Amino acid sequence: MKEIVDQSLREMRETFASGRTRSVKWRKTQLEAIIEMVKDNEDKMCDVLFQDLGKHSTEAFRDELGFVMRSATTALNCLDKWVVPKKSNLPLLFYPSTGKVISEPYGTVLVLSSWNFPISLSLDPMIGAISAGNTVLLKASELSPNASAFLAKTIPSYLDNKAIKVIEGGPDVATILLKHQWDKIFFTGSPRIGKIILAAAAEHLTPVTLELGGKCPTIVDHHSVSKDMKSVVKRISGGKWGSCSGQACISVDYVLVEKSFASSLIEMLKPMIRSFFGENPKESGCLSRIVTKKHFQRLARLLNDPGVQASIVYGGSMDEEKLYIEPTILLDPPLDSEIMNEEIFGPILPIITLRDIQESIGFIKSKPKPLAIYAFTKDDNLKTRILSETSSGSVTFNDVMIQYMCDALPFGGVGESGIGRYHGKYSFECFSHEKAIMEGSLAMDLEARYPPWNSFKLTFLRLAFREAYFKLVLFMLGLKK
User: Fold this and answer.
1) Rounded to 5 degrees, what angle do the CA atoms 216, 66, 68 make?
2) Which has the closest alpha carbon to 57: 41, 72, 43?
3) Edge-to-edge, what's the strand order for the sheet holding 86-88?
4) pLDDT for position 477
5) Which of 5, 97, 372, 444 has the greatest count of CB atoms below 10 A from its CB?
6) Who's near 446: CB < 8 A, 6+ residues apart?
7) How far is CA 349 from CA 107, 162, 216, in A?
8) With contact defined as beta carbons under 8 Å apart, do 131 and 75 qualify?
9) How far, in Å, CA of 126 to CA of 178, rounded?
10) Cβ 132 vs Cβ 109: under 8 Å
């Protein structure tokens, strides 16, 4: 495998050095090919997503195929505008110099994708890297083997295989890849692996984007949204169980609600789950399965904690053979339990009760910074407090998860939930180095820049740095000391 990696990296570097990928025409051709690849292989992609994760084809299109086509189409339509150098308005102090910023590709980039959305989390970063003019090596996750094999087989048939490559394999292959020097690394996965990526990148001072996760809280201010509770409950349910069975970094992790309303919320959630998945969710065909036996056992261990077991108010059944865990609701599990101190990444929803919903701010602040905060409220004061007193990758009011689909907004974490951002133009920027260009003029010079130093030059510099141009003119005319 080391020889394959060495050869692939050498070939990609040669391709980048040739200048081929800097061409806007080349970039557009690759983006068009991605759209064509998804259209041509929609059924095959849905099949591999079902094989790996049990995803329904509609869910697969919403979260992966449709998302990728939209992302590639946006990049294709906007690329001409993105690549235009940005003129800078320089202060008068620098006249007659001019300035601009140009976006140049990093070079050869490594994309390490995740298993839970193995098509979109592979192709979407690739779209950004290609748009910016880079060569790309993708290592898809070995935990979604059918999707990984599909990408490794199909991508070379559509894209420039001298510039864009796919390598399959597990942690051993990732270790080999990380020993090499890359011009940029983009990783989607857990904070634990993110630390390993960051440490490896530090050896070569390689810039990284880490799309991690965390426990995304959902605040329910029932006082201000009481008339809209049906929509609130539907959106929470969709955000917990409707996308890869809760195996999503932006999934609702837990709910914060006032104690007086908790039982009402639970009683509203129960029929909503049944309306989504029927009386037997295992046979509904609409609930994704847990990805592997190891991940199933981790979730089972979280649920089998005696304190957590005692907090189950709905669901809780498990089938290890089918990698199935029933949509489950917990009411006030112990706050020191493992399930309340690590990202759940599964179909289990803790509901944490508070005396007053304003206490939700302090609760969230006591935890690591999440990838997203969701809040159902019409209370402007609570909204202001959430925005000013908490820190998170994003905040979404009165909905969940839709911020991920909106490529007009940046997507990324902060602190333990990630480093960097992407989507839409932000993906182009993610894989670009913004280079400052300044062009001076030889027609004139400022003698105050140069020795020998004296009090006149010092006064001139003081006024110039303050941009006190009127006083500077008076000083030059001898009208001001």
Assistant:
1) 80
2) 43
3) 86-88, 98-105, 432-439
4) 86
5) 372
6) none
7) 43, 46, 11
8) yes
9) 18
10) no
User: In this structure, how many other beta carbons lie within 10 angstroms of the beta carbon of residue 320?
Assistant: 12
Is-contact 322 53, C-beta < 8 A?
A: no
Classified as helix, coil or strand, 252 is: coil
Distance in angstroms (rounded) separating the CA atoms of residues 129 and 299: 35
C-beta separation of 215 from 370 below 8 A: yes
- Collect contacts of 4-7 with beta carbons under 8 A, ≥24 apart: 4/167, 5/167, 5/173, 5/176, 5/177, 5/180
Grade residue 239 by pLDDT with cuts at 50, 70 and 90.
very high
Q: 365 vs 199, 334, 361, 362, 418, CA distance in Å? A: 27, 18, 6, 5, 17
* Residue 236 amino acid letter: I
DSSP one-letter string for 187-249: EES-HHHHHHHHHHHHTTT--EEEE-----EEEE-HHHHGGGHHHHHHHHHHHHHTTGGG-ST
User: Quick one: 435 exposed, middle or buried, by C-beta within 10 A (0-12, 13-18, 19+)?
Assistant: exposed
Paired sense of beta strands 98-105 and 108-112, if any = unpaired
Distance CA 302, CA 262 (A): 22
Dihedral sign (CA 468, 474, 477, 481): negative
Residues with catalytic roles:
211, 249
**Of 412, 212, 236, whose CA–CA distance to 327 is shortest?**
236
pLDDT in tens, 259-296: 999 999 999 999 999 999 999 999 999 999 999 999 99
116: helix, strand or coil: coil
- List the Cα angle 83/162/20 in 5-degree steps: 35
Residue showing tokens 């490559």:
165
- Taking residue 102's Cβ as centre, other Cβ atoms within 10 Å add up to 14
